[in-house]
Each structure stands twice: as C-alpha cells, then as structure tokens.
Amino acid sequence: MERLRKIIHIDMDAFYASVEQLDNPELRGKAVAVGGSSQRGVVSAASYEARKFGVHSAMSSVIAKRNCPELIFVKPRFERYKEISGQIREIFFEYTDLVEPLSLDEAYLDVTENKKGNPSATLIAKQIRNRIKEKTGLNASAGISINKFIAKIASDINKPNGQKTVQPEEVIEFLEELDIRKFYGVGKVTAEKMYRLGIFSGKDLKLKSEEYLSEHFGKSGAHFYNVVRGIHLSEVKPHRIRKSLGAERTFNENISSEIFMLERLENIAEEIERRLKKSKVAGKTITLKIKYSDFTLQTRSKTIDYYISGKDLILEIAKDLLYQEKMKNSVRLLGISLSNLNTEKGDSKDEKKEIFVQLKFKF
C-alpha cells in the first residue's frame, strides 16, 4: 500500500496589492488596484477592500473604477514583488526541498518527509504562515491534504489569513459537497456546461461515468472522473519544466490595419527571441493570440517538424496565421507563444490507482 503524501499549498493574500499597502501606509485599509488606470488599463490585483466592490484581477480599469469610485490605482513594481517572493521561498526551503512554485505568490510543498521532522503538515503550514508574517509583514493562506488538487482548493476556503486541512478520511465527503465551480480547473464556460448536464456539485459529478465525462469534456473527462474520487497523482516538482513561452501586447487604441499588426508582431517576435535565448529553449508549435475590440478571443496555431527560436521564423509563421482568415473586428491585443518545447519529455502513462484511507494518518 502506497503511503499518502502530505501536501501544502501556500497562497499569498492579494499579494501585489498587499505589498503596495505594506510599503505605503497611506494605502492600508483602502481599496487598491495594481494596474493601469487608463481607458485601456487592466487590474492585475486588487486589495480585499476593493474586492468588496466586485473589483478583481483581469477586470477593465474603467469597470473597476465604476464599481468602486474610491479605488486607488498603483503601478505594478515587479522587481519588488520578486524580491519578497524570494524571501518567502527561502522560508519554504527551511522545511522541505520539494517546493514547486506556481507563480510569485503561490507554491506547493511536499512535507511528507521534512527538515523539521514534524509529522503534522497542519502545524508546519501554520509555522510557515507565521514565519512569512514575521519576515515580510504579509499574510498567507494555506490548504493541506493528500494531493495538490485538494490542497489548492482547500487554501481558498478560509482566505484571507487562514488555512484548511482536509484529512484523508474527509476527502471524499469534502469533494462530494463541493460546488462544481470550486473545483480547480473548472472555469466559467466548463461550469455552465456542467450545469446544463445537471452537474452542480462533486456528488453530481461522481455519478457520471468516465465514458460520459470523456464524451462531453474530451481529455478533461478522465481528469474530472479521477479528482472527484480523490485521485490526483501529480507530484510536487521542484524544477517545473516550462511548457510554453510567449509575449503579448495590449494596444492604447484598437488597430484594424494589417500593416500595423505586422509591426506589432515583429516587436513581439523580437521579445520572444530574447526570452528564448535567455531560457535556452526552442519550440515547434507557434500560437497567435488575437483579442478583438469586443473582447472576444481567438487563437490560431501551427506545428512544424523542427525546433525554432529565431525571430524571423517565428514572425514568418505568425504572419501566415494572421492571414489565415479575415479579421472579425478591430484588434486590441496580439500575442505569440511557442509550445512543444525542447524541454519536454514524453509522459509515461500512470496506472490507475485506487484511493485508500488510513485513519491513523493525520495531518
């Protein structure tokens, strides 16, 4: 019988906005949005005071200001965020070397075997959150359970500045009672499709066969079938393999001229070439991302037989994708990304494993 793992998901609370409030006492207790306040601006992060008014990341700055007239916009300072993120990761490594960062403000930790010799993942999570507060002055939330999927869901339960442990014997009930919208990876479109199929909770999802879910959700069907049963075998990977690399630009004014679009794409291709050289990677699949003035999004992709990293070839293929079909509208954003990188390895097929519960195995 395989031993259950003890996984912690640490998620900083409103990280960018909290850093700004930390560094500028005048912003504390006020509705703050990190991002541009211009007509074309987008909110990168919002303080909890702003979230009460419905302000959230990826929202148009115009709509955010309309929702919260007292909203204060602050320009992002990514170097500062990276600096504090580095301090937080140093704390993680005091407890385990199995740390998988997802972004500057969140990470998975496998503490099944840890440097403190502490058998309680719940206590370790609390200690880590206290250390983060002491070292940076910022609050973090945590989720603790037997796998990454459940830990990530759990970290959102008692936000902000809280934590939630889902014990092995609680996993099935926890997932069955969970609103389908709370399942990590179920976005708005997927949730609406599940609603149409009569799936509103984990319990409803569990009633569907794997064949049924695969028929309606493709490759994601097997994933949904397994995770609702507590089966998620992905390990915490200290050195995450990059799956794609790209760049995009949002324009101050919508553009409809293909000549202007090609100029922008050339600039984007130059940026990608720089990033590829820095990362020492190349890719086979080129994807063009187009966001129209009505905010509809379209992607066009092409896979070639060899790896590329040079600006000229990337731009040539991006041009082909641009001319692939007529533009639906004027464009507000263009982006290019490379995937199918030479860092990836063939995935081995994991054998299906049944979840087991050890009642004495406590977190």
Keywords:
363 residues; alpha+beta; Alpha-Beta Plaits; DNA polymerase, domain 1; Dna Ligase, domain 1; 4-stranded antiparallel sheet; 13 helices; 12 strands; 22% strand; disordered C terminus
Offer a quick outline of the entry.
This protein is an alpha+beta fold. The protein has helices at 15-23, 48-51, 61-67, 78-92, 121-136, 148-154, 171-177, 188-196, 202-206, 210-217, 220-227, 258-279, 311-322; strands spanning 7-12, 32-35, 43-46, 72-74, 99-103, 106-110, 140-145, 163-165, 244-255, 283-292, 297-308, 331-341. Its cofactor is Mg(2+).
Strands, helices and their partners?
Layout: E1 7-12, H1 15-23, E2 32-35, E3 43-46, H2 48-51, H3 61-67, E4 72-74, H4 78-92, E5 99-103, E6 106-110, H5 121-136, E7 140-145, H6 148-154, E8 163-165, H7 171-177, H8 188-196, H9 202-206, H10 210-217, H11 220-227, E9 244-255, H12 258-279, E10 283-292, E11 297-308, H13 311-322, E12 331-341
Parallel strand pairs: 2-4, 7-8
Antiparallel strand pairs: 1-6, 1-7, 2-3, 5-6, 9-12, 10-11, 10-12
Helix pairs in contact: 4-5, 10-11, 12-13
Describe the structure.
The protein is α+β, with helices and mostly antiparallel strands and 363 residues long. The protein folds into three domains: 1-166, Alpha-Beta Plaits (2-Layer Sandwich); 170-227, DNA polymerase, domain 1, CATH 1.10.150; 244-341, 2-Layer Sandwich (Dna Ligase, domain 1). The protein is built from 13 helices and twelve strands. The chain has helices spanning 15-23, 48-51, 61-67, 78-92, 121-136, 148-154, 171-177, 188-196, 202-206, 210-217, 220-227, 258-279, 311-322; strands spanning 7-12, 32-35, 43-46, 72-74, 99-103, 106-110, 140-145, 163-165, 244-255, 283-292, 297-308, 331-341. The strands form three sheets. A five-stranded mixed beta sheet has the order 5-6-1-7-8. The chain has a four-stranded antiparallel beta sheet with strand order 9-12-10-11, covered by helices on one side. Helix 6 links the parallel strand 7 (140-145) and strand 8 (163-165). Helix 12 runs antiparallel to helix 13. The longest helix is centred in the last third of the chain and has 22 residues, at 258-279. The model is unreliable at 346-361 (pLDDT under 50).
